[in-house]
Amino acid sequence: MSVTVTSPAPGVTAENTRGRVVVASMIGTSIEFYDFYVYATAAVLVFPELFFPNAQDPTTQLLSSFAVFGVAFVARPLGSILFGHFGDKVGRKTTLVASLLTMGIATVLIGVIPPAATPGWSVLAPAALVLCRFAQGLGLGGEWSGAALLATENAPEGKRAIWGTFPQLGAPIGFILANVVFITLSTTVSPEAFTSWGWRVPFLASAALVVIGLWVRLKLIETPAFRKVQEADAVVTVPLARVFRTAWTKLISGTFIMLATYVLFYLMTTFTLTFGTAAVEPEQGPAGLGYERVDFLWMLIIGVVFFGVFTLVSGPLAERFGRRKHLIAVTVAIIVFGGLFVPLFAGGTVGVQALLILGFSLMGLTFGPMAAVLPELFAANVRYTGSAIAYNVSSILGAAVAPFIAVWLWSKADGSPVLVGLYLSAMAVITLVALLLEKETRHVDYNGHIAD
């Protein structure tokens, strides 16, 4: 079926200014990803010892911590259904406020959980961590899609991919902010103090960030696309049922289009931090590179700067060449990159930094256009639900299991990252197939198309 670009309906205008859209979409995802990365870093640095002290060995402790890390990804599709329902039924603005509150409160509560060694908390502490992690995932399940729609549904014609990079910048910003906080703590307090109370500071500090995010979002005006749905009396009673009836193939397509992006990102952050800081000659577990924690975090931050730069670059490229051609080229590059893990990791500090820069640059190029690509697959009245489900189901297939699989492959290869790189390449091949089977979405009738 052919598609055309239509003008907005009379009376439907983009009343949110560009500055307001930039700040509201970017600050929300920055806070959300900050919260998420704080846990990811703590999952490597302190949680194995604090919450799983009875595990058999350090590797089992780490895998237990990563298993709880994955709980949030299981919750994310549920969050996409819950918040997607209200995003398509009540509106983008209200739903974005609710998702931010859900994630923010859960993150603050993680900062007050007693360690498992506390009398009476040997079971309660891990259980409370799982519950808060689930709530984090629930909130993030509704956050990304709403922020993406806030940007793209307010974008001028021919600028959706460019405006869609605004919320995507929240990922590198949140990562840098979270890790700068951890570095500051690691260099200003003793290791004993950091393990005792220092790790709690980033979680508790998120309360201030949430207040700022709420203040900005409460000033928003509903997007033109959703107001057009309301004017047409086309608000769906049960968006989940409608999206599965009208666009189930797009749900599958969007899920696998996002797969390589998720695997790449969580290998570049969680796995590289684990591998980079593991002892060269460990008493137990697979060997790593032996970097000091703070040194490697700075290397990661340098890489994430390139993530942010190439996220911005990806928008104009996706507008000029089309989303499909751009992502096909980047996905092929990711397949090749997976084969470079061994030579780059073996290249000393220069090689490791080059790997991080290259990997995060590819991450920016593939992640940047997703805020336009996934929503463009769905009609306006089921767009929040559809794009959120595709994005978050992909998180289970990609990010939820990626750290766990990577650690397992690393241990099976006697400390070599060769199998981890091949795993990334294999997931990118699946994404490439999905892209080849999907049509270009640059010129879809974005604000005018409503699902029957």
How would you portray this structure in words?
This protein has helices at 18-45, 47-51, 58-89, 92-110, 124-152, 160-163, 165-168, 170-188, 191-198, 200-217, 224-231, 239-257, 259-277, 293-321, 323-338, 341-345, 348-367, 370-376, 383-400, 402-412, 418-437. α5 (124-152) crosses α19 and α13 runs parallel beside α19. Helices cover 75% and strands 0% of the residues. The chain is globular and about 65 Å long. It has 452 residues and is mainly alpha-helical.
Distance between the termini: 15 Å
Overall shape: it is globular
Summed up, the domain count is: 1
Quaternary: single chain
Percent of residues in beta strands = under 5%
Low-confidence stretches: 1-14
Helix/strand order:
HHHHHHHHHHHHHHHHHHHHH
In angstroms, what is the radius of gyration?
21 Å
Mean pLDDT equals: 87
The number of helical runs is 21
Number of strands: 0
- Corresponding CATH architecture: Up-down Bundle
Largest sheet: none
Q: What CATH first level would be assigned?
A: Mainly Alpha
The helix content is over 70%
Q: Can you identify the CATH superfamily? A: MFS general substrate transporter like domains
Computed structural class: mainly alpha
CATH topology: Growth Hormone, Chain: A
Task: Describe the structure in brief.
This protein is mainly alpha-helical and 452 residues long. It is built from 21 helices and no strands. It has a single domain (18-437), classed as MFS general substrate transporter like domains (Growth Hormone, Chain: A, Up-down Bundle).
